[in-house]
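[stage:ingest] chain + small molecule (nicotinamide-adenine-dinucleotide)
[stage:ingest] validated
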Amino acid sequence: MSLLRVSLLCRAGLSRPVLSVLSHKSYSTNNEPVGFIGLGNMGAPMANNLLQKGHKLVVYDIAEAAVSQAVSAGAVKATSPAEVAKQANTIVTMLPAGSHVLECYKGENGIFSTVSRGALLIDSSTIDRGTVSQVFSSAQERGVTYLDAPVSGGVGAATKGVLTFMVGGDKESCDQATSLLECMGRTVVHCGDSGTGQVAKICNNMLLAIEMIGTSEALQLGINLGMDPKRLTDIINVASGRSWSSEVYNPCPGVMENVPSSNNYQGGFGTTLMLKDLGLAMDAAASSQSTALLGSMATQVYRMMSQHGYADKDFSSVFKFIEKEK
Ligand code: NAD
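[stage:predict] done
[stage:export] tokens:
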């Protein structure tokens, strides 16, 4: 996607209502560089949106190609997280999992080796609460603010700058981070103390997984009983079975345009990532002795899918996985 298009989408995003009613005092003014670490599927468009909103960016990723792309869009290259932290007092990280976050923050050339007192560190990766606690404690020891701020919305939402940020940490720091987060998202929600952003994220995604499987089962049942899936979807969407999966992200090919199901389940939110989030939810359910029967079944379904050729497909491909053989 061209920078111009990203820019136009960002401007469109600006005109949308922002649900959070938070202070607009910014941690980072446009003159101070912001650090961004982890320029993958999500991080690259998020960083692009910061650049488009006039922020100077210092970037790092272990993948050279990702860094080069950001540099060609106007960012400055750093050679380690430590170097990012030397140049920027506000840093956003967007990494795959807890181990990468630990390495990036607490590793030999990690952020904590050079970070200045008073800095603001915002981790938008989806990770386990144990890692959040470790990073939070280290941040407190150094007089640094650390917020867990995982996102809802996939690559499309990251590109359009309409992500939802679920923020864990003290309210005042969340308020101060809001104007920066609003350059990348439409909604910023303060969830509570450190770690609660991750709690909100895994609860939401566990529900999403269950809902997507349920919607797929209902549509497949209707098809097997001779009903047109588009018609059935229209009915569900004005009846009590309606959900995001039926209304916005329908899993049946041809029912909706511009969703992964109508593009051979390419793009979107991959089965592997959904399985990762379900794993986090199941670990959390076990440690809190919570009953999560359907969450556990959804985990098994997505595990089977990932072993049967669906790993790289969008998670709505569960519709195909359960399709009756013809
Ligand atoms: P990704 O794998 O595309 O990107 C991760 C990036 O981090 C890569 O560029 C990788 O090279 C880099 N990286 C890995 N280890 C590093 C290190 N030690 N130092 C610096 N860079 C490092 O992943 P993604 O899809 O962008 O997802 C990032 C996070 O966002 C994950 O936690 C994911 O669960 C979450 N998320 C993803 C989506 C989605 O639709 N993709 C949606 C919501 C949330």
